[in-house]
Automatic annotation (TrEMBL), chain A:
Protein name per Swiss-Prot or TrEMBL: Cell division topological specificity factor
UniProt feature coiled coil, ranges: none
Keywords linked to the UniProt accession: Cell cycle, Cell division
NCBIfam families: minE, PRK00296.1
Biased composition (Basic and acidic residues): 90-101
GO annotation terms (biological process): cell division; regulation of division septum assembly
Family matches, as HAMAP family: MinE
Region (Disordered): 1-20, 78-101
Family: Belongs to the MinE family.
Superkingdom, taxonomy of origin: Bacteria
Function: Prevents the cell division inhibition by proteins MinC and MinD at internal division sites while permitting inhibition at polar sites. This ensures cell division at the proper site by restricting the formation of a division septum at the midpoint of the long axis of the cell.
From TrEMBL, chain B:
Subunit (UniProt): Interacts with MinC and FtsZ.
Tagged with keyword Nucleotide-binding: yes
Highest classification ranks of the organism: Bacteria, Pseudomonadati, Pseudomonadota, Alphaproteobacteria, Acetobacterales
Biological-process GO terms, alphabetical: division septum assembly; negative regulation of cell division
GO molecular function, one term: ATP hydrolysis activity
Record protein name field: Septum site-determining protein MinD
InterPro entries according to UniProt: CobQ/CobB/MinD/ParA_Nub-bd_dom, MinD, MinD_FleN, P-loop_NTPase, ParA/MinD_ATPase
Amino acid sequence: MSWLDVFRGKSKPPPTSAGAAKERLQIVLAHERISRAGDDFLPRLQRELIQVVARYVSIDPKAVNVSLDRGGDMSTLAIEVELPPPSKDAPADAKPEARAS
Amino acid sequence: MAQVIVVTSGKGGVGKTTSSAAFATGLAQAGKKTVVIDFDVGLRNLDLIMGVERRVVFDIVNVITGEAKLNQALIRDKRVDSLSILPASQTRDKDALTKEGVATIIEELSQEFDYILCDSPAGIEKGALLALYFADQAIVVTNPEVSSVRDSDRILGVLQSKSKRAEEKRDPVKEHLIVTRYDPNRVEKGEMLKLDDIREILAIPLLGVIPESESVLKASNTGNPVILDGVSNAGQAYKDAVARFLGEDRPHRFIDPEKRGFLSRLFGGRAA
Ligand SMILES: Nc1ncnc2c1ncn2[C@@H]1O[C@H](COP(=O)(O)OP(=O)(O)O)[C@@H](O)[C@H]1O
Ligand SMILES: [Mg+2]
């Protein structure tokens, strides 16, 4: 980018149609990939999620809930992870958020 | 054992046949014994793109039905040694292809060739499924355009579930991406999907980017695969892609807008 472009306003490009293409593709494909995979990937997804989350916070494996809600033109994949209450020796205001230690 | 490579895309008119012809020719130029099979029964075109249309006597359906021997149907290329073409039938429909028939042909070709390229028809119906069924590797041809990218994603799903490798739970089909008809100028203007966005969405290794080029039409007009046109950027991009396929490490070219500087005008040339 040349210094002239700054005056032409190129540093902040307006939204382009190619940008819209990317966004629309990402949404439609996320959707289609889920229906393609079928529900049978859910148990594995759940197992892997537990492993990943447990790397950052200790959780009860039973406190991870994964569900797939298949709708007509929209499906949702809901992932719910219940975190344990703050431990007694932690500062009172510590939030149970994911944190690499 | 030969490697079976399907050239596929889901969507029609994206450059599968152009890429099949270029790749087959390039592999043969590199000294590999290569055969390219047209699976588009009823809409045969590979013969024209390869410039062998007047030499077609028998086709793949004749071989499957036993009306001809495989080596009667194979057409040896006159430009590049070790390149052969197996044409599709123009008069029959896709039901004339059977899995057993194709299996026998691929088995037999495996004895003689290093690479068996399968030029897939569009769609995800029988012809396309048969073209990819025996594949060890897949070249997914994609245009920088929403419907093409979506269909490529779909065909990747099919490769991962309906190929012989998937059915037998062997190592999956090795996937390669070829982005064709790429126009860096339009990309820069924000009118066309960026290479990086396509890569991010499809998430398979990139084998090559073929620019939109007038030389492709010139090549098909005369029946010479564009890879034989060493001065055209599309021809060079295909050459690079073949070299990468064979393990060479080459930088991607023709992905940025042409700089009309003095040097590039002298040495680079315009879209030829
Ligand atoms: N890189 C390119 N630049 C310009 N035109 C191209 C390019 N690649 C393919 N085409 C054109 O696109 C059309 C479809 O190509 P083809 O290889 O027959 O696609 P498919 O086999 O996927 O249906 C043809 O007219 C071809 O000349
Ligand atoms: Mg074709």
